């Protein structure tokens, strides 16, 4: 099949490379000239585990273009452009509507337009009105790719949702995946249900994160350990272990945007989503609560002390800093300079953080001689602190519960504090 993917971001690129690996001829369209130069040089412009390697394998089946007319022979056009959060919390749909307008003159007869972007209920109805052609089929097909694990999720999806009432269109899309994905994981719904499945899924996961963070706060007051509580809860198959890691709150391009958009959408329909609203407020407050905790530890330091922060990305496995709690926390630490290191996200962080931050080339350089070390992203390489020696008294604030507390609490010159312990 010939496929076009509109957008070459954290969703578009893994999707394009994955579909090319299935043997499809794929063209990826983007209007960012700088990004296209990078792509056409053979380099991925973002970090995603395994993406560069997969591209090298499929590059003969994949091309990049800034010309929308290059979709003119595509059987399937996938919309994977951003739907960022507007000031009022709603989803900003200008990019996806513009994409729909741009592709319309170039769509061949009987083409399918599938929306991967996360969009509010009714958005695909509007896309259908924009295209305004009875021979074109508009489908809602939300993505469920986790940043850092996007390729794993593409090739091993929990489900593929195809939102269409047209059985023939459903089967045409299903045929792309059926040789690679178990049939029972491919689900047909109507468009509105497909749109809501994505929002409801992300809101539920965000609520789960906020819930365990609140339980973590309680643990700190009653001499319980949130790690043990999480394990005990997660062993219940009705609950599950995933997304029960206490920390600094959720971030990234999805959960903050999608919870706010869902709340806004419900409000527009006269429905109050109290649980979602509480999750949004709690997660917002979480990062500033963490910053306050750090400031309480810093306030007695003299001017020559060194504060080191490990982690800038909103989670490990990505260079994405969008709505990263780490960025807000660092911005609210009352000390300068702050030494920082992240294996992938420093170039992006430099664009938004103040000059009070000094970026280092390695973990070792960042933490050397530090009086306080703060862990804000759960990169596995930060676990090398478990084997490090500290020549001076050092306070380690592990806000991701990444390190082995058994090793850290007996380490010479180290005072070690975790989330969710008294």
From TrEMBL:
Positions bound to NAD(+): 30, 35, 83, 118, 147, 257, 322
GO biological process: polysaccharide biosynthetic process
Entry EC number(s): 1.1.1.22
Gene3D superfamilies with a match to the protein in the record: Cytochrome c1, transmembrane anchor, C-terminal, NAD(P)-binding Rossmann-like Domain
Positions contributing to substrate binding: 144-147, 198, 243-247, 251, 315
Domain UDP-glucose/GDP-mannose dehydrogenase C-terminal: start-end pairs: 308-405
One Pfam short name: UDPG_MGDP_dh_N
SUPFAM superfamilies, A to Z: 6-phosphogluconate dehydrogenase C-terminal domain-like, NAD(P)-binding Rossmann-fold domains, UDP-glucose/GDP-mannose dehydrogenase C-terminal domain
Pathway membership: Nucleotide-sugar biosynthesis; UDP-alpha-D-glucuronate biosynthesis; UDP-alpha-D-glucuronate from UDP-alpha-D-glucose: step 1/1
Residues at the active site: 254 (nucleophile)
This protein's UniProt keywords: NAD, Oxidoreductase
GO molecular function, one term: NAD binding
InterPro entries listed in its UniProt record: 6-PGluconate_DH-like_C_sf (IPR008927), NAD(P)-bd_dom_sf (IPR036291), UDP-Glc/GDP-Man (IPR017476), UDP-Glc/GDP-Man_DH_C (IPR014027), UDP-Glc/GDP-Man_DH_C_sf (IPR036220), UDP-Glc/GDP-Man_DH_dimer (IPR014026), UDP-Glc/GDP-Man_DH_N (IPR001732), UDPglc_DH_bac (IPR028357)
EC class of the enzyme, as a word: oxidoreductase
Signal peptide range: none
Family statement: Belongs to the UDP-glucose/GDP-mannose dehydrogenase family.
UniProt name for this protein: UDP-glucose 6-dehydrogenase
Originating species: Candidatus Enterousia avicola
